Amino acid sequence: MSRPLPLVLIQREKMIPTLKLRTGDAMPQIGLGFWKIPRPQTADVVRQALEVGYRHLDCACDYGNEAEAGQGIRQAIESGVCRRDELWVTSKLWNTYHAGVHVRPAVERSLHDLQLEYLDLYLIHFPIALQFVPFEKRYPPEWFFDPQAAEPKMHPVAVPLEETWRAMEALVRDGLVRNIGVCNFNCSLLRDLLSYAKTPPAVLQIESHPYLTQEKLLRFCAQQEIAVTAFSPLGAPSYVSLSMADPEESVLENPVVEKIAETHGKTPAQIVLRWGVQRGTAVIPKTTQRTRLQENMAIFDFELTAQEMHDIATLNRNRRFNDPGEFCEQAFNTFFPIYE
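User: That's the sequence. What structure does it adopt?
Assistant: Structure tokens below.
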């Protein structure tokens, strides 16, 4: 039998607002992103995050650490830190599994690794279909079809998004997934998806931060009752080490953000995350440090003024750090734009 949750965790959970989805489910507005968390650290980071009070975990096949995340979840549940029904666990369908016959095996592999019977949310990771790579050959398959080739490249295939979505809808009917959605879609792709979806997407996950505010896309999603999760909500820091951003592009060092942080007695990161949740999105910052886990969680005891929200929004540069039109060619020898 699980032990009761400590009072401090119960109180902290009550402070975390949620986004109500069209299905009636409630997704916590602050979560922990697992992209780039090293596998040896993942289980411990999960345990620490759940101890601090996180209940939203954003995972993906492609991150390569779902088995370790599953270990951390299981340990936390068995030690009484949380119950499964208190967690919101997201995973994502990788590009090589877009064909309808591969969708269910892909989610079953994620469920096996995460040691779960169902996912709260399953997302199409990119509107990019690549040649299938069998699980036994390479998992996660990543971007190259054959990394050992003389000139390795991505191998795109023609799989209609409707085929992928029909298979995603079947996961909901079969009880493997409670909600389905998409990542990295624009308004046109969403509009097309909505034209045939029997189960409309509950969530869109996109890159969004003060340098990439995506106002029109958020407005469209609000009209269509699609909740939005912002990945990379702090902007450049996740991309500097990958040479996809320059250190001086950090919004955390922007004078506007620094001044607002000083006004509220908060860190620049807390201000940017607060801006993200106050504009109605969920945010999933990544960190491996317990002090940062606590800092990122402590954004619900203050509010930004309307003027401060406006001042941060005007920092927009339409600066996209995670752009397949750039990194696919630079890192994977294949030009594959999905944004204009």
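The radius of gyration is 19 Å.
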